[in-house]
Every structure is written in C-alpha cells, then in structure tokens.
Write a structure and sequence with these properties.
homodimer; alpha/beta; Rossmann fold; two-stranded parallel sheet; 13 strands; globular
Chain lengths: 341, 341
C-alpha cells in the first residue's frame, strides 16, 4: 500500500504533538485523513506551542499530558495504531546543568511509553525521534549507522538510551519500533524564544529581526539540514513500513553546508540581519563536535525517502513564516510577544 | 610509580563494596595499605553480603547507603582520591520485568555519583564497572572496543548510559573517569543464592551441591572468563593510570571456552554434580547473544594487565571457597543457609 493512503482513517498519536516537528507532522496527517491524537506537556521552556496547531485544532484531539506519567500513557496508547514519539528535552546545554530532568524526560518517559504499549497494545508501531548527537564527534564523514555511538553530552546519552529501549522492545516484546536519527531540522513552528535548542532556529529569528548573527570560530564546520516537511515525510514513511522495524536510520540533508555559507544564504534570503565571527564560548566549545553530515542511504533504500525541499527554498519559507508569526514564538515577557491566548 | 605502591595510604571508595568484585578488590586494597571506604546498600536480592568482608571488617570503613541518594554521595566523595564504581543491578532478567528500578540503579545513581564528584571533588578519579553486555550479539569475534554498542536488554542499555556519563564527565567537567567492560567474572564471594545474575556462579553452586547443571542447547556457544582476582587487578591498574582517562576497555579472559567444555572442566574439578543439555527457555533465548569473547589488547597496552589465573585453577579455588562457605551465600529461608549474623 502507498504510505500516504496507509494513514487514511488511521488512529495515530504524536507525543510532543504541539512541538516543532510534531505539529508539522500533524498538519500532514490531517491532510491525509488520519485520526490524530496529539499529546504534549506544554512545559514552558520546551517547544510545545498551541499556536503551532491553531489551523488544525478542530481536526485533531489535543491531550495535555506528560509522557513520564505512566497511568496516562497506559490509557492513551490503547486505541492508536502508530505512535510518532517526538516528546523530549532537546537542549544540550540544559542537560549539562540539570542532568536528572533530562534523564526523566528522555529515559524514563520512553520506558513509560514502551511499557504502556507492551502491556496494553503490543500490536502498535512506534517511530522514535532519535538524533545525530548520539554519534558525537565523527570519526569519518559522511556518518553512517555503522559509526560508533559516542555522545558528548548528557542529552545525547539519554536520547540514545531512549532509542535503544525501542529496539529492545521491538526485539524482545515484538512492539514494532524504529528510530530516525535526525540531523539539523529547520522550518516553520520551531522554538526560537531562546537559543538553547540548536543554532538554526535562533539564527533565523535574528535575521528576521534584523540583528547580528554570531558565527563561532571561522564558520568552516559543515552541517546538513533537513526542512521540516521532509522530516515529517520521513516519519510517515517509517510508520507505514515494517521493513524499518528494529532498525535505526540516519535522516539527513542532501549535501553539507558550512556555517558560514548557511549564514550568507540566510541573510541573502531574508534581506535583513548581519553576521560576525566570534571566539568560541568555552561552555559550547567543550561539547562541540566539528563538522558533521550524515549518510541517509539506508533509509532511502528502505523507504524511498529523500529530501525534496532545497536549502534556499526552505529558508525562504521559514523566514516568511516568522515574518508573519514571530510574536507567537517569543517569551510572554518579550516586548514583541503576542498577547497570551 | 608502581601501581600497587600508588595505593599505600591512599583514601579510596568502593561502591558495591560488599558485593562480589567490590569485596575481592577491598581485600587487595587492604593488603596494599589503602584507606578503604566501602559503600553498599545491602539490598536483599543483590550481591552485597557482609560475610564477604568479615576478614577485613576491622581494616575498612563500611557505610551502608544507596548510591541513588544524592546528599549521601555528595558527602562521601569529598575525602577520597579514587572511586571504584561497582554498585549496580546486574540481572538481565530482572531488568526486563522491572525496567524502572533498573533505570534508577544503573542510570540515576551514576549521575548522583558523578554530580557529587563534579561539585565536591572534581580532582577525583572514577573507575566504572562496565559490561560486555553493551555489545549485544557480536558481529565479529573477538570483540574489540570498535564494535558497535547494541544492547539486547534494558540492563545493557542502562549500563551503557551509566558508562557514557562517566566519559562525558571526564571530557566536559574533567572528572577523570574510565570504564572497564567486564566479560564473565567468577570466583569466591559471588552471589549464588539465585540464578538471575549469570550462569557461572550458579553452575559452581550446583556442582558443589552435587546437583544437575542444565546446558541450554548444545552448549557450543563460546565465552571468556576472568577470575575475580584478575578483575580486581584490572581495577587497580585503571585507578592508578591517567592513560586510561576518558576511555573504555574490554577486560576479558585469555581464551574462549564453550559452555560444554566449561561444565566438563567444572565437574572434573569439583568431583561432584552432573550435566544435561536441555532446550532453551523462550525468555532466555530472546535475549541470548550466541558466542562472545573479547579482545583485551587495548587495556593490556595501556596498563600491562593480563589475566594470571587459569580457568582450572580459578574454578578449583572457587569450588574450595564454596565448599567451606556456601551456607553464607544461601537465602535465609534455604535449609542449608547459615544463621543470620
């Protein structure tokens, strides 16, 4: 069956459903006619934002809950066929300041979800949002799934433990599961209210606001970027494919770009903002990994996925989104923020 | 400096100090003149046993505490130079029945210890007891540290997360730490009161009791075995060597042996017991990994360690120990158990 047709009328759950990737995936699933349940804790500092789902709020069910809460998850998993498991704490910096909270959100919560599936709905399928962070500083490029896992921060460790749980529950308890190790995802609906969740959203905000972007070092380090619609498409394909069960897959961009070139392109597309190279802050340098880009051939072979939105187009769509909606993505105390709804 | 001389008068802590490897290491450290603090929770089902340290109880300090307890660990780490970090839940089977407890003991507790060091004694050195389990089912033999980490059960996942924390705290916070990935350790003072902590201790008990040993399948799968005195020596060398910081090392036996040959040798050495091949129980088969043996060349190159006690001699010493002391290693309700002390 065509992977898009697979979702027509199908009950699915997205954890982290009001977040960046979760809400974009929800829009696509609504278009495909799925029966969508969003679960989000709306913890203030994280990426969940009800504005992200205002267009589709009448066509989804929104359940505010924390995935760490075992009894809630036990109930919610009963009537869905697929879980897109995107809830998590994604700040490297926060994980080094408060490793216990990161442990709770990225490890314990995954056990809650998987135990709920094992005991109440073992026929379910779970697609986990993994991360390139698990590889740490690469030994070779592009990075394949054969690269050693060597995380450089607590968040990377807890994310990989969460991923491994999925694989073990697949192998031992037949709860079908796989993990997509995402590289740098960008696009509309990303958290930009602080700069502790990766640099790309923050850079886009600064450009839109006409401010200065700081490039650490000489900006020569390489990264690959995936537009969020392409990331959502990867989740849809993985959720519909039993060829993915028990496996991990890189989901990365079509070609690497240096920080410097990324910033140049972004400023050109935006027409506002400026850039300057600065020294590495010590705290960030300690957990930096140099250049990174992923080889996604394994996932392409399994599902036919490939990124369709080029960097220039993706940046243009993202800049246009924040030009229109930025006030909804600022802290309530920020002078430019939208009034609370 | 000679690694043994390094410990003269030196304050050291062993977590899991009343357990199998911890107590054997404590005996050696006492001989070397170290100032030894043992920390153990003495949780009934685990390996801590005060009988293990009766010979040295006047020459060590014993502090009963749970390594998950943050304030306790914050206090205890202040005045020691080296932590041998051996506390943990080691049953694969239990971890699949109750993954949350395994998470607490093998992940959260490691964060407690490392946060305590980071905040109160960053000049400390920590040697973590890792495990070959992290490799899962091997892709090649012997297994080197370049083999992918792919645990097959929840315990293996949590143990590797605990190990990764040590490496990150070494790299980011300069809390010097390394991990020894131990294969199958055997010898005096091992838990034998139930069979959920690996088969070798259990087999030795059955042989000593003159009972029947069950070999799963045809017994052709290979393993490597390390006598506990050699494992203790590995910890001493790693604790004294800054060449080990930030690294993981396999610590395995000198040559692989099949289950069948191991049992034959054990029965010959013991002169009691019998053996029979039986079908694999489904629960165990689901998490079995086939043959496994490790390449320890990296650790040998870094520290000069090599195993000195051969399998026949090690088994003979272990059998002699349990012939004399078995009642102290049985459940209180067991007819052969020693009276509670």
């Amino acid at each position: 069956m065509d992977y898009e047709a697979f979702y027509r009328g199908r009950p699915v759950m997205i954890t982290g459903g009001a977040g960046f990737i979760g809400s974009n995936l929800a829009h696509r699933l609504v278009q495909l006619g799925a029966n969508v349940l969003l679960v989000d804790s709306l913890i203030p500092d994280y990426g969940g934002n009800l504005f992200n789902i205002r267009d589709i709020e009448d066509r989804v069910r929104m359940n505010i809950a924390d995935v760490r809460q075992e009894s809630t998850m036990s109930y919610l998993v009963r009537h869905v066929d697929v879980i897109f498991n995107l809830a998590g704490q994604v700040s490297h910096i926060d994980s080094m300041r408060d490793p216990y909270t990161d442990l709770e959100i990225n490890c314990r919560s995954q056990l809650s979800i998987l135990e709920a599936c094992r005991r109440n709905n073992p026929g379910i399928k779970v697609v986990f949002a993994g991360t390139r962070q698990v590889y740490g500083k690469p030994e070779f490029l592009p990075v394949t799934e054969q690269h050693l896992v060597r995380p450089t921060d607590v968040n990377g460790i807890n994310k990989v433990a969460g991923e491994y749980y999925h694989l073990v529950y697949n192998h031992v308890f037949n709860v079908r599961a796989c993990s997509l190790r995402l590289t740098n995802i960008y696009g509309p609906r990303q958290l930009v209210k602080h700069n502790r969740q990766g640099f790309i959203g923050w850079f886009i905000r600064l450009a839109v606001e006409g401010r200065e972007l700081q490039i650490y070092g000489d900006g020569s380090q390489l990264r690959d970027f995936v537009f969020v619609d392409d990331a959502a498409d990867a989740f849809l394909r993985a959720g519909a494919s039993d060829a993915c069960n028990g496996e991990v897959f890189n989901v990365g961009g079509s070609e690497p770009v240096s920080h410097r070139d990324l910033v140049q392109l972004l400023l050109e597309v935006a027409g506002t903002g400026s850039a300057r190279c600065v020294e590495w802050p010590a705290e960030k340098k300690a957990i930096d990994i140099g250049s990174f880009y992923a080889d996604s051939a394994k996932f392409r072979a399994a599902t036919g996925w490939q990124p369709r939105v080029g960097l220039r187009e993706g940046l243009a769509r993202t800049v246009a989104y924040y030009r229109e909606h930025l006030p909804h993505y600022l802290e309530p105390g920020d002078p430019g923020a939208a009034p609370a709804s």
